[in-house]
Known about the structure:
- Two copies of one chain form a homodimer.
- Chain A is an alpha+beta fold.
- Chain A has a domain at 3-169 and 191-228: glycosyl hydrolase (family 31) (Immunoglobulin-like).
- In chain A, 21% of the residues lie in helices and 21% in strands.
- Chain A is built from 14 helices and 32 strands.
- In chain A, strand 14, helix 5 (297-306) and strand 15 (310-315) form a beta-alpha-beta unit.
- In chain A, helix 7 (349-362) packs across helix 8 (400-421) and helix 10 runs parallel beside helix 12 (522-541).
- The longest helix of chain A is centred in the middle third of the chain and has 22 residues, at 400-421.
- The first copy, chain A, starts with 24 loop residues before the first strand and ends with a strand.
- The model of chain A is unreliable at 1-22 (pLDDT under 50).
- At the A-B interface, strand 11 of A face strand 11 of B.
Amino acid sequence: MNSSRFPIEIFSRGEYIAPDRTGYFHTNGIRIMKLYNGIEKLRFGTPEDGVPSRQMFVKPPRREAIEAMPQAANTPAPEAIRFTVTSRGCRLEIPLAPGEDIYGLGLNLKSLRHTGKKRTLRVNSDPATDTGDSHAPAPLYFSSAGYGVLIDTARYATFYCGGNELLDSGDDVPPDDPNRILLTEAELYAARKTSAPMVIDIPAAGGVDVYFFSGPTLLDAVRRYVLFCGGGAMPPEWGLGCWYRTCGTSDAAGVDAMSAELREKQIPCDVLGLEPGWQSKTYSCSFRWSQERFPEPEKLISKLRERGYHVNLWEHLFTHPTSPIYEDLKPYAGDFKVWKGLVPDLTLPPAAKIFADYHAKNFTSKGISSFKLDECDNSDFIASPWSFPECSQFPSGLDGETMHSMLGMLYMETITRASRQSGIRGYGSVRNAHAFAPPQPYVLYSDLYDHAEFIRGVTSCGFSGMLWTPELRHARSPEDYLRRLEAMVLSPQMLLNIWSMPHPPWRQLQQEKNIAGEFYPPEEQARLEEATRRILELRMQFIPYLYEAFAEYHDFGTPPFRALAMDYPDEPAMRGIDYAWMAGDRLLVVPFRAGMTELDMPLPPGEWFDFYTGECHRNHVMLRPAHDQLPILVRGAAVVPLAEPVLFVADKMKFHLKRKCFGINPRPAKLFADDGCSFAFENDSARYYGEVSAKGALPPQLCERYELID
Amino acid sequence: MNSSRFPIEIFSRGEYIAPDRTGYFHTNGIRIMKLYNGIEKLRFGTPEDGVPSRQMFVKPPRREAIEAMPQAANTPAPEAIRFTVTSRGCRLEIPLAPGEDIYGLGLNLKSLRHTGKKRTLRVNSDPATDTGDSHAPAPLYFSSAGYGVLIDTARYATFYCGGNELLDSGDDVPPDDPNRILLTEAELYAARKTSAPMVIDIPAAGGVDVYFFSGPTLLDAVRRYVLFCGGGAMPPEWGLGCWYRTCGTSDAAGVDAMSAELREKQIPCDVLGLEPGWQSKTYSCSFRWSQERFPEPEKLISKLRERGYHVNLWEHLFTHPTSPIYEDLKPYAGDFKVWKGLVPDLTLPPAAKIFADYHAKNFTSKGISSFKLDECDNSDFIASPWSFPECSQFPSGLDGETMHSMLGMLYMETITRASRQSGIRGYGSVRNAHAFAPPQPYVLYSDLYDHAEFIRGVTSCGFSGMLWTPELRHARSPEDYLRRLEAMVLSPQMLLNIWSMPHPPWRQLQQEKNIAGEFYPPEEQARLEEATRRILELRMQFIPYLYEAFAEYHDFGTPPFRALAMDYPDEPAMRGIDYAWMAGDRLLVVPFRAGMTELDMPLPPGEWFDFYTGECHRNHVMLRPAHDQLPILVRGAAVVPLAEPVLFVADKMKFHLKRKCFGINPRPAKLFADDGCSFAFENDSARYYGEVSAKGALPPQLCERYELID
């Protein structure tokens, strides 16, 4: 591979202290480069070319914010790391101390904590078991001891998280009871306590760069990683509103009618999504409007924009032979087809340019604000695999394995460039991500649907700077429906993905009956419609709060949605909680699932106030929410600013705020103000943070966008 | 790796026709060696050292039998094969013709037919999805077009079985209906018809040897493979009897009592298995008798042998520090522990010798006939992985990945050597196998338990010359119990694996109640006991028939248990049948599962006779068996020899035969006679085939072992 096709390895521009001529210190055969305050790069052997850090999706680190962080140097000692190269790849052994818990490795629906487990980072559309397979794996872990480690590889690496002892580790004769006979496989195969290291198995590579992120705390380590990647994503305000994906069979008239119905029913909605039927040909994609179903797309888009909607288009990047860009892309395509379409090699600037320019010219410049980037993961675990083989070859020299790891990242960056050409700060959906994901304004989703897994996804992916939506597609009962809606209120995206049903879900939740037009009795429809409206309005009330949390993500690297283990790694009871999360700096969300009637929720130290009643709890709280109520707790005495709900966020609109205050001497809340939709906020003079105190007026710099009405 | 440690690459001793000096023809950069009639070796690039064909478990091909087979040359043309090497390994593209169905790839519980699918051959104790993960994957496939292909690699290779089209394959604009919008994921991701080749992705290797097996028929191709591997396994007669594994908590008195109870109740049993508790220490294994539970093992073994039992011992090869062979093995161990034990590198002759000699001295020379070789697979898909990493290093130079693939084969061969030192023709249990499995006298098993999958296993593994037992461990109902027993009657092994319950299953099927001594009412116990006896007696009646089928396996390569697709690849209706199989040359078995009341079974061409009623069926048969009856059909007019059931097969005993005749002018049956237990049959003068006709006496050479009593 010709590495000059890639951006310069930007991390060699880091600030190193007293380096030798190569920019590296040498310790024990490892080359070490001090990049920034608390961030080091260790080079083992000779790394491959096709690694994540050399791709176009990598942004410059947010150096000033990193340098402003507390000093810390609590990563594992380089001299204790062992590195081996063989014909099948290379292996790292990084020591773990007793009691360390391991998090991260990308989106994980099956578990939050990886301690003692084996994880293989296979990109996979339908992970069936708790093995590391994921839509969005990432070679990146964080320890409860307060540091993070990024392995710069796009290989399907395996992480043995402290479960495998080395023969030379001593401790030969274990003190186990020699006489206990076990009668279940679960007992036989239960994990034993060990003194094992983290072992990382990287196929094919003869070496690898490893980035160490110091704390001192776990959250600090995550922040350092996010800032190193260029800071967190900054969605437009409308992206934090409510999303509705219309039925796959809808034509222009159907979309028009649905857009009118939502406004008429006063159901909040900022983004309408169109499914594959907008295109003349799918699977694979022509990227052309269907003349039959959408004969006048610009007219439809205008109408939707007039009604306050942003429009999102479904697509994947497998390009159908009838696509206008097929012939241009063909020289830059991988050697296997997917659904008869070509796979563009977006690591090559000409291919990315053809793809981005086409999208800019035909979509983002014509009123399309957002895209759903489907099927950029892989298909190991379904009956009919559809994606390209790991042994595919791409013109850049990348193979299918590395391409699968980075496909979502490349695709997001390409589409983001198209949006930016049209001045659109986008927010989209994507089904794959990897290392360096934080700055990309995309939310992960899945065709899977277990609600506990969907909730767990919010808790797991924050460690890797990824966003995930526990979207609603359908529900097996009204209770399930309400619980699934609620779980999104304080999540990255409030998405009603109703692609498989022509009518709104509150009329009928079951697909077949919905298609057949068999609706619930009118009073049940009205009840569900009203509950939907109230839950969506709750989301709309939180937009200023969430927007500020994203600004902190962008500027300071703090993930807006965090597992409790991230904020409280020293509390053993918090380390395994995969069913609740922190949203922003002061809200704890505990989504219920259908069938749950109560939960005795352990609480981190301090006072926690019930969001609805203001009741104060310590140590734990017994939750028994009604079916239409999301349990929310407020951390300590605090102000929570709530917006008057609107049906959609208009450009530069003014939010009307009420302050909800909890406890004695509540802490002020922060708000962030910019225009909410353009890239102007990248200029310091067009962005402001300000505080909302329990009493008194807003600071003047917030008044253009916010007004107190309490 | 020093290849001189391995047996000489025996296939270069093949008979080649007009070779150049290297023994190879050259075609298109591929080196081709004609080995035997219908067997060619193709060399692509530079193969690795640590491949299956170079290991000690490889036997000399049965050349004379291969040469006696029909001539055929119907394998894919070498010049149409494409081969590529990259840094991550190598890739083969082997053409497939339209309509070819693909079988093989080792034991597969999730599917019989691989056409269009992606299969990654990961060694795995708990395969959860239909992806090629298996206890016993094998890089070996057979086509319905009548040929087979063996890829000589121990890597976790991936086989894309015709589902992935190449970009340069033409056919750019598909004729699909461009307007059909689909509303389910199943439809969206359904397999499309393609003109795709078999694509094989071999990690790490820079080249590979490929063996082609011609037909003309699919069964012929399988036969050629089996003979190439040295012929099929030849179990002793007692191995084909009934097996009972005693409870894990049993001590010597418990085993003694169980052995007495089975005889007293007249339940046939040839082999009693002892679970981990026989050892002083497990997991990992000390390989020493527990002083506490088995203070006088030789006395117990004598008593069991006097009662006609063979004794089987459970073990795995992870060696505990307290084992007498631990220190001797330590220089030959891999660099990771498993359950605090070492992993011996059995590719190294000293390690194999230490292990085999110890077993010969302490076990096989002291009356132990058989072993259960547990956990030699791997543990990707369970909550607490226990085995060694794929990136492990072994002193021979092998890594963990290749060791996992070959661990079962190496282990079987090592134990077989110990048995052979003591003159014992063994038959054991094992949880991993790979290429070159056919001669190994071991039956695969699993901790999984879905009955449909257990039945499918019998149909799938025959293509790879493997044996599999749909063993009984427990049952959720008496119906489930009887159906599970029946499914084993005409399978490789009749195994009641009651390791988790202290009392026989007919007294109580549920583990907890069985442990607590809460039994069924006496009349239900009696009913289940009687049904058990009758089903086990049916097995005993088939021993001469099955023994002859194994002799044909050994001598001519015909698997004794075969999917209908193997015998009838040209019948489309037979190609997907994964719930019935041929046992021997004339019996078709259709095991029922709990909950099934009837089945309209499609039949291959010809007449098929109901084994019980003699009724003749063509094209199909409606089966409605009672809960205690296994549906069996007889192929064409034929004699089926049935033995008078015995409680166990004594050495050189005489079987009393009745002839069951079906149709007009029934074909004679074949029988095989030797001593049934030693290696004498390897000498032609100590073995005989003879025919049993519908009328008349037995040929004299059979009379020492068989007597007609009808």
